[in-house]
From TrEMBL:
Annotated InterPro entries: DUF6691
Keywords of this entry: Membrane, Transmembrane, Transmembrane helix
Organism placement in taxonomy: Bacteria, Pseudomonadati, Pseudomonadota, Betaproteobacteria, Burkholderiales
Transmembrane domains' residue ranges: 41-60, 80-100, 106-133
Name the UniProt record assigns to this protein: Uncharacterized protein
Keyword Membrane: yes
Length: 145
């Protein structure tokens, strides 16, 4: 049943990205172009998403289990550290350069947009590289010959 809820959530999210135009990188880049022909529509989409999310989180905070019956899992981190700051800066730079963030890139890639396919491939390579680096950083130090 969990996979059905995940599918529905992903479908609604993807349709929302398509309807709002956020799968179009020109729309995102227009929002980030503060000195040119600024497009405020992304700010309106984000504001609407924040309003819906605030209501949803207020309701969910009072529950012990999700609608699908899974236990609620809330983030434990409460402070800003260098990894979060560096990840946020990297995400923002990639978003500004490509006009895609992961969700809209997957939607556009599924529609066959060449730039999105390249972005998703680069994103997958970055995740694989992170996984490799994290694996080697977690290995215990060698002792002895």
């Amino acid at each position: 049943m969990v996979i059905v809820f995940a599918f529905i959530a992903g479908l609604v999210f993807g349709l929302g990205l398509i309807v709002s135009g956020m799968a179009n990188p020109a729309k995102v880049l227009g929002f980030l172009d503060l000195t040119g022909a600024w497009d405020p529509s992304l700010a309106l989409v984000m504001g609407g998403a924040l309003a819906v999310t605030a209501v949803g989180f207020t309701w969910l905070r009072r529950r012990r289990a999700s609608v699908s019956g899974e236990p609620m899992q809330w983030p434990g981190a409460t402070r800003l550290d260098w990894r979060l700051a560096l990840g946020s800066l990297t995400f923002g730079a990639g978003w500004g350069l490509a006009g895609f963030c992961p969700g809209p890139a997957l939607v556009a890639a599924a529609a066959g947009v060449r730039e999105a396919l390249v972005f998703v491939a680069a994103m997958a390579a970055g995740m694989a590289l992170f996984s490799i680096v994290r694996h080697f950083n977690r290995r215990p130090p060698r002792t002895g010959p």
